[in-house]
Amino acid sequence: MDADLIRRSFCFHAPSFDVALIEGNRGLYDGIDLDGATSTAELAKLLKAPVVMCVDCTKTTRTMAAVISGCVQFDPDASIRGVILNRVAGSRHESILRRSIEHYSGVPVIGACRSSAGRSFPNGIWGWCLPPSTGGPPTRSNP
């Protein structure tokens, strides 16, 4: 899709809302080639949109600070402004993650979701799904 068309589409659909949430596809920098074309980071840069990363924190603490720091340094123009911790084991785990990430990367942790045995979220955890028959614009599902 042409960059100008993407910008026009976003500007046409977003102004009636206070917040426009763009759910990324795969990892932040994953695209179709070595340069990350079609990646979420490239889309965020194109739209001058801040990035909030949602990271799986299963059995990690300080390592997640290194991951976030690496993402920030990999492309400083991909404006990473916050982190949501996913699959956090408990309050102690969350505390260590928060302190480590904020101390070593400088990126604020803005939320955390606890792990829960037996509860799982389908792909597209925020509930956005493409209609399977059309591949058309996303719609909101009610999981």
What this model shows, in words?
By secondary structure, the protein is an alpha/beta fold. The chain has helices spanning 3-13, 40-47, 62-74, 91-105, and strands spanning 51-56, 80-88, 109-114, 128-129, 139-140. The strands form two sheets. Strands 1-2-3 form a three-stranded parallel β-sheet, covered by helices on one side. A two-stranded antiparallel sheet has the order 4-5. The radius of gyration is 16 Å and the shape is globular. The mean pLDDT is 86.
Descriptive tags:
17% strand, single chain, 3-stranded parallel sheet, 33% helix, alpha/beta
The overall strand count is 5
- Individual helix count: 4
The fraction of residues in strands falls at: 15-25%
Strand count, sense and barrel status of the largest sheet are: 3 strands, parallel
Task: List strands and helices in order, with pairings.
Blueprint: H1 3-13, H2 40-47, E1 51-56, H3 62-74, E2 80-88, H4 91-105, E3 109-114, E4 128-129, E5 139-140
Parallel strand pairs: 1-2, 2-3
Antiparallel strand pairs: 4-5
